[in-house]
């Protein structure tokens, strides 16, 4: 859904990417630094109940991580390794966010419902990503989904940040919504891949 905003974001990201490229920073350095920052913010602050400041730290590094693609295009360093690294590091960052929340809910936060919701959102996110990767590995396309990574990350971070500010039921609503949207996205990807596979079977 947020893919429609990419042209507008490119107008902001590209000039900053040019500045970073002149410093000699590589796209892979940006990718790894962004992921380490997200993981550090999530695993150091969320388990202590610092959900607002944890969200602020994570968000800062998420924005920083947006520049790796721009630097890659500007420097001509696009390639299979960079794409693989970026995708893999995204999974690490996502897992760190939900792990930090789960550690809080099973510890000082003491909330079984939010624990299970966060766990479900983390697992469903992995399934969404794997479904696309596996489909593409089979030569199929799997770009559909009402809640891709950007949407899922925004929902989880906004909910966590509002909860940290004391907004009642912010995480209940946010993670509940995310669980529903993730389930729909999984179903959408299963459906589109099944349809393509069936069509190939008929053609062969």
TrEMBL record:
Its EC number is 2.7.8.-. The active site is at 90 (proton acceptor). This is Phosphatidylinositol phosphate synthase. Keywords: Cell membrane, Lipid biosynthesis, Lipid metabolism, Magnesium, Membrane, Metal-binding, Phospholipid biosynthesis, Phospholipid metabolism, Transferase, Transmembrane, Transmembrane helix. It comes from the Bacteria. It comes from Actinocorallia libanotica. The chain crosses the membrane at residues 20-45, 51-71, 92-107. Mg(2+) 1 binds at residues 65, 68, 86. Homodimer. Mg(2+) 2 binds at residues 65, 86, 90. Pathway: Phospholipid metabolism; phosphatidylinositol phosphate biosynthesis; Lipid metabolism. It is an enzyme of class 2 (transferase). It catalyses: 1,2-di-(9Z-octadecenoyl)-sn-glycero-3-cytidine-5'-diphosphate + 1D-myo-inositol 3-phosphate = 1,2-di-(9Z-octadecenoyl)-sn-glycero-3-phospho-(1D-myo-inositol-3-phosphate) + CMP + H(+); a CDP-1,2-diacyl-sn-glycerol + 1D-myo-inositol 3-phosphate = a 1,2-diacyl-sn-glycero-3-phospho-(1D-myo-inositol-3-phosphate) + CMP + H(+). A CDP-1,2-diacyl-sn-glycerol binds at residues 28-31, 69, 73. It is a multi-pass membrane protein. Its cofactor is Mg(2+).
């Amino acid at each position: 859904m947020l893919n429609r905003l990419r042209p507008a974001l490119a107008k902001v990201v590209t000039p900053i990417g040019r500045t970073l490229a002149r410093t000699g920073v590589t796209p892979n350095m940006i990718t790894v630094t962004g992921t380490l920052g997200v993981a550090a913010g999530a695993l150091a602050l969320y388990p202590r109940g610092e959900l607002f400041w944890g969200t602020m730290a994570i968000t800062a590094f998420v924005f920083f991580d947006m520049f790796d693609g721009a630097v890659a295009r500007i420097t001509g360093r696009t390639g299979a390794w960079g794409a693989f690294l970026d995708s893999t590091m995204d999974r690490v960052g996502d897992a760190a966010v939900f792990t930090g929340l789960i550690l809080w809910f099973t510890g000082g936060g003491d909330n079984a419902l939010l624990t299970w919701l966060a766990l479900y959102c983390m697992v469903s996110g992995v399934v969404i990503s794997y479904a696309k990767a596996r489909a593409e590995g089979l030569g199929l396309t799997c770009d559909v989904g009402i809640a891709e990574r950007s949407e899922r990350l925004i929902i989880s971070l906004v909910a966590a940040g509002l909860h940290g500010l004391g907004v009642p039921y912010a995480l209940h609503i946010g993670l509940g919504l995310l669980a529903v949207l993730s389930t729909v996205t999984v179903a959408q990807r299963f459906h589109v891949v099944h349809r393509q596979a069936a069509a190939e079977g008929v053609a062969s």
